Amino acid sequence: MTTIVVVHTGPVTVQPIKEQFQQLLPDARVINIVDDSLLNDVRTAGHLTPEVTSRIYNYMQNAQSMGADIILNACSSVGEATDVLRGMIRTPIVKVDESMAEQASAIGPRIGVVATVSTTLEPTVRLIRKKALEHGRQADVVERIAEGAFDALLAGDAARHDDILRRAIVELAAEVDVVVLAQVSMARLVPALGELRVPVLSSPRSGVEAVRRALAQH
Fold first, then answer.
1. What is the rounded average pLDDT of the residues 190-217?
2. Residue-wise burial string across 114-130, b where 16 or more C-beta atoms lie within 10 A, e elsewhere
3. How far apart, in whole angstroms, are the C-alpha atoms of residue 70 and residue 90?
4. 164 — alpha (psi -120 to 50), left (phi > 0) or beta?
5. Where in the chain are the domains?
6. Strands across the sheet with 140-145, in order?
7. CATH number of the domain at 98-202, out of 3.40.50.1860, 3.40.50.300, 3.30.420.40, 1.10.520.20?
8. How many Cα atoms are found within 13 Å in the side-chain-facing hemisphere of 90?
9. Quick one: CA torsion of 195, 13, 214, 68, rounded to 10 degrees?
10. Which domain of life does the protein's organism represent (predicted)?
């Protein structure tokens, strides 16, 4: 049986990714490692720290010991740790947002990125620019923080979080060729956005599709 270990930095990414695995890789054994101190420490520092990278390394080593065929890094805020750890962990590692970043740069040069925390926004923007450069494409990135949304979610007010975020996405869609949702937890809003003039990309499905492609090549 195929074993996939997913490293999460908080509980909010577990369910949306689990649902995609059930649809796309229903026979796989999926193990979730969740440590919500990782994202909290990144937010406190304002950036990825060596200490957080070290803890992620330990989790990925554990995943390797569990016999994982693939490791999925589920958080964009710590995605750049994966770039460091890929050379240190034998098991292939997939970043949940890497495929989404490639798709965005293929759609058009004006790419809007929405996040609720700056520690996710900045690495996502860097990843999109990196992917565009790799493919010889232009990427004019418009950044947008949905102010107050993350605090509302932490306070248990999902409706307010969704309302703030929805308005930010709709406003940004009027300015760009494609909108990228920088956090896995945002994906559930897509069906409620209605008809927009540009595509809105989210990472849970494209991330799990990338896992499926990697397994096929493994």
1. 92
2. bbbbbbbbbbbbebbbe
3. 10
4. alpha
5. 3-95+205-217, 98-202
6. 140-145, 110-115, 178-181, 200-201
7. 3.40.50.1860
8. 7
9. -160
10. Bacteria
Q: Taking residues 194-218, what's their average pLDDT?
A: 92
Q: Residue 127 in contact with residue 97, Cβ under 8 Å?
A: yes
Is 78 in contact with 38 (CB distance < 8 Å)? yes
pLDDT digits (tens, 9 = 90+) for 136-163: 999 999 999 999 998 898 888 989 999 9
Q: For residue 153, what are the contacts with CB-CB under 8 A and spacing of at least 6?
A: 12, 116, 161, 185
Residues whose CB is less than 8 angstroms from the CB of residue 59 and which lie 6 or more positions away in sequence, other chains included: 7, 33, 35
What one-letter code names the amino acid at 111?
I
Give the pLDDT band of residue 26 (cuts 50, 70, 90).
very high
3-95+205-217: CATH topology is Rossmann fold (3.40.50)
* Mean pLDDT taken over the chain: 94
- Between CA 149 and CA 79 the distance in angstroms is 22
The reply to whether domains 3-95+205-217 and 98-202 share a CATH topology is yes
